[in-house]
Give the backbone structure.
Amino acid sequence: MKAGRVRRFVANVLAIAYKEASLLRHDSTVVQNVVIQPVILLIVMGFALRFTPQDVRWAVVDRSDTPASRRLVEEIQTSGYFAPVRHLRSYGEAHELLGRGKLVAVVVIPDEFRRAAALGRPEVQLLLNGTDPLTAARVAGYVTQIASRFRAESEPADRARKGEPASGGPGRAPPIELREEFRYNATLRDRNFYMSALAGFLLTNICLAQAALGLVAERESGTYEQMLAQPATPLQIILGKLLPTVAASYVALTIGVIGAGLMHGYWPRGNVLLFYAATLPFILATLAIGTFVSALARTSAQAVFIAVFFIMPSFVLSGSMLPYALMPHGVREVGALFPLRWYQILSRRIIERGAGPAEVLVPVLVLVTIFLAMLVAIRWRMKPRLG
């Protein structure tokens, strides 16, 4: 009995998918709104985009543990750009956290920092996660400025041995020499940052463009109630309408991945099969949002208007065009409501750092949750009604 229900469910979904696949084509009636798009861009770019990092996640490996090293950490902390410092015990732990995307920067203060300061050659190392090149470059610039102003004064015993005043005096100690090391994008190529988000841009456009006009087209042609009267549940109808676009999305994704490799030499570092599998929840979540837009809209023009209103903030606030670490709080949290935010996190982890399933589990679960929530909303909206 249960097997029969499953077969009937799958048969209904595939029948609807076959019908939709035969009608799948580019819609030439998509209207570009010339008033709302500039307004959205003005609001988003005027209030959301900043080029000053805030609450940058960083850590310190302080092997010296001297007053001078602690003062350096304090000066970096009080600059206003960084989150509370995290103290690490080893170099290996720093590399692990950078690789997992938990940190943007790690300051390594060597054992001989106190002695090097006394000799006039203080050095520290700065490890940076280059996955987001703009953030990494700006953080490196800020730390370099702080280090250039910092004077690692010698200890009183060292000054007495040299015959210097006990108080030292301003400008006696030389500035710290900073040695930078970028991880996962050593050359800080902007192309890498945007190539890793290419799939998100492609799939968002394709999925929303196709799904946003699906149900509203049935309503405008007068076949909406007829569609609901079919021997299929609303859930089966929804899934049947989504399947052809899922296939088209994977074709576009494959073209994008191969094109980036052939044209720019940019190939994923991680498992491609994992990347494709993790892409499915994003495609379904985005299609579900587009279908919900189509269920809300009365006309194609309304559907396009709502879709454009969703696409532009999604691109900007998701972190695909600009690292969300540069956004102020409030705006940053709003961006977490868009599926593209979570997809660009998992795609960059796989493509840039070669992450495994455990590291992309949270973004995948969030995307699945968004998809299921949208299915419930669509089911509520698609209750048979006349007029």
Remarks:
- The radius of gyration is 27 Å.
- The chain has two domains: 2-30+191-381, 58-186.
- Residues 234-264 form the longest helix (31 residues).
- The first strand starts at residue 58 and ends at 62.
